[in-house]
Specification:
Length: 567
């Protein structure tokens, strides 16, 4: 991915003028042709009973070698009607011991996050606050030992298999790993097993494009780790490539969930339902281990983070009940619940790595959602000049202002070239729209983001909406909810979040979404804002804000970085 000079060698392909970037490793298509063979049926990864039995036999062998009984209460899981004996692990909010064998050292403390956390990526350019190395997200699993890890399923926009595969053990202790990507070019839909001849335990599941727009992007980034006693969910802002987790800034939401006892099932928790729906939308068969076993973990949670996902709509989704399950509709529902069904006049900052071709009406719609206003009452906005009037009335904004009061954070051309630590070579995965921003006029909303850790490029995607004036006031309770924040894969684009409109001839309200995206939304308090600006912030929510606040407005001569406008 990165050559000896530190240059990113991924090839950039533009899908449309409002979507996120599309990157593939050089030679990726040829590798697929030469080194993997597609399996004819998606059902090939449906019933994994045989592979499960083989895994258990390997586990028994390891137990015999360690002088332990071949089976105990944690060894058996349900396979084709066999009995299940699974013990629920009581959540420990302190660090737990888990042996590993890395660089010859035996055990170390491994934190488990039963209430969720957000971590900043490691960055080679930040010495005082280096962040967390990606391999630490996977511990106690190491390249030498699975330490209870049996299965993995992950999704990414682009990947570096050589880098990623080195973090998991091989041989008898290797977990079964499924990589999800979207069909593109010569990479056709289907199951590629093995993904590579040297990775017999890896499978590539390529999602079909049937019925989807040619511009649809599978932009989700997540990993689910299935251990014998727990499940770890990781929702990421960066792709599964070395570059994203060493040279630019990204974040990871991490949540551990304990295994349930015996045959108990969790079919009602929000995390479980959301993730099963996402996997189903990605064509993961019902018989796949992830779909079968997720209900065996207690995914109820006291964590304040709420999942928000976008799934492409083959046809527009109609009716508010359905709209509130996806994209901007789901965001509106979660924000309303966080704010207690009250509207706030908010200051909004939106940080991302790709810029949309914004219209005033779509940003007005998004701004209205951010305030917690009753969107069912005010959306969809009418067309033309009536849209401004309707939006201003709903949000208490000035009708004379065409663009909503939002700060769009995106690096300027001059900042990239003169101040960013890697210069132009570090900005190859950032997609601005210089010409469109000037012609349409939304350049007036652009602000320069600067990381709290120095002049590094931020691939991290976040939205922060905070009650106006609250930072200057002195509230009696610093833990009072004053807004909310988002982190995940969504850039601030219509393709990512979707658009709410009326059906033909004034028909039922409907939602259209182009991309797969995934993130979490959390409530924000004044204490979280103060903590976020410290050199080493503590707490899950403080780590969402990775930039110095307030971001500074572009200077008159500034234009957004646009890699396709370079000469």
């Amino acid at each position: 991915m990165v050559d000896q000079k530190g240059n990113d060698r991924r090839t950039a392909i533009v899908l449309d003028d409002s979507d996120d970037e599309v990157l593939m490793n050089d030679g990726a298509k040829k590798q697929v042709e030469d080194e993997v063979k597609p399996v004819n049926s998606m059902a090939a990864i449906g019933d994994r009973a045989l592979m499960e039995r083989e895994r258990l036999e390997r586990q028994r062998k390891r137990r015999r070698e360690a002088g332990l009984p071949e089976e105990d209460d944690d060894d058996t899981i349900s396979i084709a009607g066999s009995s299940s004996k699974v013990q629920k692990v009581t959540p420990q909010r302190t660090e737990v011991k888990s042996g590993n064998r890395s660089n010859g050292k035996e055990s170390q403390d491994i934190p488990l996050y039963w209430s969720g956390t957000i971590k900043k990526s490691f960055n080679i350019h930040s010495k005082s606050a280096p962040g967390t190395p990606f391999e630490d997200f996977l511990r106690p699993t190491t390249p030498f030992r699975a330490n209870g890890l049996t299965h993995v399923i992950m999704a990414t926009f682009c990947e570096d298999i050589q880098w990623l595969s080195q973090m998991f053990p091989k041989g008898e202790s290797a977990p079964e790993i499924t990589m999800i990507t979207l069909a593109q070019g010569e990479l056709k839909a289907g199951v590629y097993a093995p993904l590579h001849p040297q990775l017999p335990n890896w499978i590539r599941l390529v999602v079909p494009r049937r019925g989807l727009s040619e511009y649809t992007t599978m932009h989700m980034k997540f990993i689910i780790l299935f251990y014998e006693d727990r499940l770890r969910l990781m929702i990421l802002s960066g792709n599964l490539v070395d570059y994203d987790w060493r040279r630019i800034e990204n974040t990871a939401f991490i949540h551990d969930f304990p295994r349930l006892k015996n045959d108990e099932k969790d079919t009602t928790s929000e995390y479980g339902k959301q993730m099963r729906r996402i996997l189903s939308s990605l064509s993961v068969p019902a018989g796949h281990y992830a779909m079968r076993m997720m209900e065996s973990y207690d995914m109820s949670s006291k964590c304040e983070a709420r999942i928000v996902a976008s799934i492409p709509t083959f046809t527009p989704v109609t009716g508010w009940a359905a709209i509130e399950e996806l994209g901007i509709g789901r965001l509106g529902k979660v924000v309303r619940e966080i704010l207690g069904n009250k509207m706030l006049e908010v200051d909004i900052e939106a940080q991302g790595s790709s810029m949309g071709s914004y219209s005033p009406r779509w940003l007005q719609q998004f701004h209205l959602i951010c305030t917690g206003a009753d969107y069912r009452k005010h959306l969809p906005l009418p067309t033309g000049a009536k849209a401004v009037k309707a939006w201003a009335s709903a949000t208490k904004c000035k009708e004379s202002e065409q663009w909503p009061p939002m700060r769009l954070l995106f690096p300027s051309d001059s900042w990239v070239k003169k101040q960013s630590v890697e210069g132009v070579s570090g900005a190859l995965t950032f997609f601005g729209k210089k010409k469109v921003s000037i012609e349409k006029g939304f350049i007036k909303l652009l602000h320069q983001p600067v990381s709290l850790r120095g002049n590094i490029m931020m691939h991290h995607k976040a939205i922060v909406a905070i009650k106006k004036g609250c930072e200057q006031a002195s509230p009696s309770d610093e833990n009072e909810i004053i807004g909310w924040a988002y982190m995940g894969s969504h850039n601030l684009t219509q393709a990512a979040w979707g658009n709410i409109s009326s059906g033909k001839k004034g028909g039922e309200v409907q939602l259209s979404i182009n991309n797969w995206e995934l993130g979490v939304v959390v409530p924000m308090c004044l204490n979280d804002l103060h903590e976020s600006q410290k050199p080493l912030p503590e707490g899950m929510k403080a780590n969402i804000i990775t930039w110095k606040r307030p971001a500074q407005k572009y200077k008159e001569e500034d234009v957004p970085w646009d890699q396709f406008d370079q000469r």
